[in-house]
User: Fold this.
Amino acid sequence: MSDMSLTDPAAVPYQRIAASPGEARTPDELRGLSYPFGRWVPEHGTMFEVASGIHWTRMGLPFGLDHINLWVLDAGDGWAIVDTGVNLGASKKAWEALFAGPMAGKPVTRLIVTHYHPDHLGLAGWLCKRWGIPLEIARTEYLLARTLTLDVHDKAPPEAVDFSIRAGWPDAAVDQLRNKPWGHFNKIVYPLPLGFKRIRDKDVLDIGGRGWRVVTGRGHAPEHSCLVSDDGIMIAGDQVLPRITSNVSVYPTEPYADPLGDWLESIETLRHIDPGVMVLPAHNEPFTGLHTRLDQLRDDHFDKLAKLTAFCAEPRTAFESFATLFRKPVGESDYGIATGEAVAHLHWLEERGRIRRISDAAGVDRFVAV
Assistant:
């Protein structure tokens, strides 16, 4: 599961610049968004206060998307952490450096996780155990994470193989998948606590005298929790990112889902948030211009849906649609993520009667415009 969509124009990343604490942080503008701290990012193992009592730290990731932003909130007699990083030694060392450095003198008293993906949840169990605190997370996200930690197989289960066949994968790629181990979630997720404390849409969390309203988004994850403060700060997780598009995919575990429908509905839900908030995303840098970014995300998907509809003038498989949806050729190592995204777009069109599915005797699905 990836945070970044293969549909992104992200092959040329926006340059990241680290700076010393005393160096000037100059506001920057890009594509209608404003970056209050410019391209500056905090050095690993440090914290930067983006607003009173709200601290930004950044940790590395062993993926193509090489970083995650984490948030440490002053809770008065302790600290509240939002999201955790992956379960790797380097991440634990980074947290220990913070506990011994800028967070010294107060315990961690709360841990809130926006959604189940390993870069957000990976060290939740370790942090809860270390500080003796509960994990606060939406119910669906917790239960899905618990399920995925147990979903480990010596080779791909039949449902996963069938999913790749329906998508139109080449025979050689299907055969290779059959013999691959399946289920890597638990490799970078520390064992989760047996129980959790549920957060849900419209809850207001009091942290250090500041109220944080939970706003639930869907599509990237089934019950993604954003936090919006009463003084104009939004911890957005992966629900709104400034320069990359969150992955929206169909998976073999729910092979007929319509996550893009959930995603586009969530864009409209998020329009109820004050457009002037400062958005603290999980990737890239803090920005303002929430509604402008929501428009960009919506328009990007609608553009791809229009191109895909035209492409389906002839019956097409999900695999054949890669060239229409993605800006770069898709290598075999990315067949899984590309298939998830392609099927999500095809399902959106199918659910709304714009294309129909044709299944052949070999179990391959093709889609054709109506």
